[in-house]
Each structure stands twice: as structure tokens, then as C-alpha cells.
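Notebook p. 47: complex prediction with flavin mononucleotide.
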Amino acid sequence: MDFLISLRSRLLGIGYRWLAKPLIFLWPPEIAHDKMKAVGKFLGNYAWSRFFTRLLFHYQNKKLNIEVDGVHYNNPVGLSAGFDKDGELTRIYPAISFGFAELGSFTGEICPGNPGVGRRLFRMPKSKSILVWYGLNNQGAEKISERLKDQTFQLPIGISAAKTNISSEFDLEEAIEDYVKTVVLFEEIGDYYTINISCPNTQEGEPFVDQGNLEALLEKLSEVRPAGKPMYVKLAADLEVSEINTILDACLKFGIEGVVLNNLAKPEFNKEYVKEELPFHKGAMSGLPLQRISTDMIRHVYRYTEGKLTIIGVGGIFNAQDAYEKITSGASLLEMITGMIYEGPQVMGEINQGLVKLLEKDGFSTIEEAIGSRNPLPKK
Ligand SMILES: Cc1cc2nc3c(=O)[nH]c(=O)nc-3n(C[C@H](O)[C@H](O)[C@H](O)COP(=O)(O)O)c2cc1C
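Predicted complex, C-alpha cells below:
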């Protein structure tokens, strides 16, 4: 059976690389994103299409089951925030082997995102990256929560909350209320929250890197958040160690369960891309340029917090080895987008199957045993 699934993935991968991807890449990236979402939405709408998608892309193994902060996951490979900005494709994710999906980022108010609709994404294929200049476009927390409130989900759902990007003026009270609005509206929807304080494409920058602002935000969120639903904070990719530690201390102080590492990398702070490929002077990069930074940050956070904070590792996961490196560095869960775009929708199944092989090779019987195994904490 394992052999047949490998063969299936290999054939699908070849089909994607030589047929589907060249066609999809004929569209400008933002248009291609919209078209692929439409396909995912269509496939999710009918039992027959979910069944056939599952037949082609699904992989499952008990060794990958994991419980994190009280939530059960069939596998640790999730969709990262930003692909499904309005929460429209939830019914197709289990069929393509995602273990969970983080929706959004949702903002308190309707957010059109940055100007230039249709031209806010850029491919950097040699760098295995996407330059993103969306600026948090989404329909707003009210409309989306209203649509999702009666849905049942077949996998754990993360709700990513960000501050509405419609003004360059920063007002602390207003900004906090914006996050609170989303958190409260999604009280009954989804399984965890991510507080996105690290979008690199907003008009007002990243004001919640400041300790005072962050503590005010987390204090308020700790008052309004529903009991028993984990909350994570998503960090930027270009922070100084002292800034990272300040955020971690604040998370520990206000009972935040963990962190998502990391958001997109800004080209001015990151040189791990092919220079001639940078197509636009704004935006920030996903994929390979982020891979090492995110894994290094996972290692640091795991050691600094002595494993007390849950880590969701994200950035440049293209195969099982990349995924395993983040897990053995200390991540309990993983997220991805760019790997799926460059490798194809069979890649989540391939990563899961590859993870099982890597676990067996290292003598582990569950994914949980592998967490942090190559980043041992100092003995007390
Ligand atoms: C098209 C696109 C849109 C994104 N939008 C968001 C977003 O709204 N909120 C967020 O927290 N991260 C967003 N991100 C960042 C991803 O969640 C993730 O942190 C980053 O892409 C690294 O993962 P990857 O290398 O697997 O793509 C976006 C990424 C991409 C590629």
C-alpha cells in the first residue's frame, strides 16, 4: 500500500511539474491564486468531488496523530494563513492531507488590502519564493464569522486575527479593539487563534513589537478570549534576539499558549534570494528565503522557553526533510503555502508519508516523540 501511495504521489508530482504548473503559471500570480481557490471551493462543494480528490491526494497514518494544547490533529501539516483569506475552502483540506488549516488573516473591519488588485503577488521561481504585497485583504470578521458560524469542520481550524490595514495612523486603543472584535466574533468558530502582529505589508508597520503595546494587547485578549481555546502569536522574520525574547516573555506572562514562526521575510533584511529576481520594491518573501530563519528561530524559542510554548513552524517547507527539521528543532505543528504552489497539491501527502519514514528511521513511534529531539534542552 505504501508503495502504491508513493507511486501515486510521484505521478501526480510529475503531472503537476510538467503540465499543471506551466499552465497555472501563465496567469499573473494573484489571478492564479483566485482561480486555484475557485477550483478548491468547487471540489469541496460536492461529496463526489471530495471523494475523488481524497482518492488522489489523501494519506493518513496513526503515527502522525498529535494532541496540542487540547486539540487533536490527524497530522501536523497545516495550511498557513494567507491562502484562504476569507475562509472559503475548508471542506477540501482534509482530502488533500492537510491536518489543519489557519484561515485569514481576518480583520475587525472590511479590508481591501493594498492598492493594485490583481498585481500584488510576484513569483520568484529561482528563489522558490513568492513576493507578497497583499496587505491583509479580506471580507472582514463580521461577514466571515456570519458565514462560518453554522459550518462543521472536518479538521481543526485556526483563526488568524490581524489589525485592519486601512490607515497609517496608529491608535493603541483602536488597534486593540480591532483584534478583540475578531476574537469575540469567532468565539464559537474554530479551534485556536493566531494573533498576527507581524504582517510586513501594512501602512503602520509592526507596532506590537513594542513591549508596552504588546502587553496591553495580550492583557486585553487574555480577558476576552474564550476559555480552553489556545491562542498563538505570529512573529516577524527579522527580529533581534532581544525583541524575540521580549515577545516570548509577554506570551508567558499573559498565558499565551505558543508562537507561529514566522511571517514573511523582508528583502532588506534577508539576502537569501536570487537578487535579479526581486521584481518590486515593496512586499516580503515566502518560501526558501525564510526556511533557515524560521528553523533557527524555532531552535532559539524552544530552548529559551524550555519547551513551555507551543511552536508552529512555518517557512520554506517543500518536503518531508524540511518538515522534520522543524519538528526535531522544537515545532509541534507545521504550516505551509509556498511548497504547495511550487511542488503541487500532492506534496502534503508526500510530506506526511515522508515524515513517517523519518520517524521510523530515528526509532520514534509517534510524531510527538520527535519534537525537539535534535535540539535537546540543557539538563537542570
Ligand atoms: C500569498 C500569501 C499571503 C499571505 N498572507 C498572510 C496573512 O494574511 N496572514 C499571515 O499571518 N501570514 C500570511 N502569509 C504568510 C504565510 O502565512 C507564511 O508565514 C509564509 O508564507 C511562510 O510560509 P511558506 O514559506 O510555506 O509560504 C501569506 C503568505 C503568502 C504566500
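Notes: The chain has one domain: 2-370. The chain has a mean pLDDT of 96.
Next step: compare against the earlier run before touching the bench.
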